[in-house]
Amino acid sequence: MRNKILNIRIIEFFVFVVIWMAVFSIPFFNQRFGNTINWGKVFGEWISMFSFLLIFVLNTLWLVPKFLFQKKYRSYVGITLIAILLVIGATILIKMYIIPPQPLVMPPMNLGPGMPPMELGPGMPPPMGYNPVTAPASKSLFMIFVDNLLLSILVVGAGTAFKLVSQWLNEESKRKDLEKEQLKTELALLRHQVSPHFFMNTLNNIHALIDINAEDAKNTIIQLSVMMRYLLYDTAHGQTTLKKEIAFIESYITLMKLRFPENVTITLEVPEDIRDIEIPPMLFISFLENSFKHGVSYQAESFVLFKIAQNGNKLNCSIRNSKFKSKEKDEKSYSGIGLTNIKKSLELLFKNDYILNIRESEKEYEVHLTIPVYENKMHSN
Rounded to two decimals, what is the model's pTM? Predict the structure, then answer.
């Protein structure tokens, strides 16, 4: 966040320098007639511009952050007006008593085709019939003050607007960083809700397996430890690889196969060549848990099908299972905490860049999920 704030300030400083360099170059071009530059006029205008620059810097670097952003509006207006009056007064006195009046420099006279232009020096009367650009009538002290006051107000307004835009960009950057941190926190909480739920179900599977085959139960505990290592470490950064996620699902399905009888058909279809792509962890396990929880019967023929495939930069996951009538309270909790959380996770992770279709019939329940995927950056070195 500090680097972003520093970058905004560097850009702000660069824009200030470029704009004021352009402004200070204007008198140089305005007071240039042919090869002659009225440097006295240039310096006089530079003094006025320096006063505007001083007001601009004072306003943007001190008055706006110190008073306006702190909602001290009366103090801001009052101190700004006092600063403008002091700077304008000092500028007028400097121009009146330090810089002497500058003679009029007339533009060169065009004498006709083939003749070089005739330079007219200061004080030199123009030839008869020549209508030079004459000096404007001298302004009163009051009008000079009013002109400088209006320009100073415009400078203050421009500086304040620029500072407000800069502050808005800064706050917007902070807000986005906070949203990202909040997203990470919410996803971590969602994963922590899923993991104990999955862990409890798996322990129940092992408990049932101990009475059937103690050796298989030991191997299952080893496999479970590998899975828990994945949950605790490989998913900690909020990203994992498709290969690791599929390995986790394969282990989970292997555990479930040990529990159910032969009349339950469990099918896993995954690509033979799994590309090295990144995905958020624990996206599919909630759907899979619900498939086993609500789609498997010990008495009747039942099935669970898990299929995953990649199509370009999209990852398609399909989970289909048999469905059996259950008690009313089970029907109400059919989606379960896992499915509710996975829907919220999808919204947090992908916003609108995902497709989730759930189809339910009398005998089947089917979920289709499509998410965007990217090449893995975690192991690109």
Answer: 0.51
Specify whether the CB–CB gap between 273 and 236 falls below 8 A. no
Please give the CATH topology (third level) of the domain spanning 212-375.
Heat Shock Protein 90 (3.30.565)
Q: pLDDT tens digit string along 72-97?
A: 889 989 999 998 888 888 888 877 77
For 153-209, the DSSP string reads HHHHHHHHHHHHHHHHHHHHHHHHHHHHHHHHHHHHHHHHHHHHHHHHHHHHHHHHH
Could you report the per-residue pLDDT of 227-275, keeping only the tens digit for each? 878 877 777 777 888 888 898 888 888 877 877 778 899 999 998 888 7
| DSSP-assigned letters across all residues of 84-115 | HHHHHHHHHHHHHHTSPPPPPPPPPBP--TTS
Q: Which of 299, 293, 304 is nearest to 333 (CA)?
A: 293
Q: Which structure tokens are listed for 324?
A: 């059996």
Rounded alpha-carbon distances, angstroms, from residue 216 to 140, 230, 338: 104, 21, 28
Where in the chain are all domains bearing CATH 3.30.565.10?
Answer: 212-375
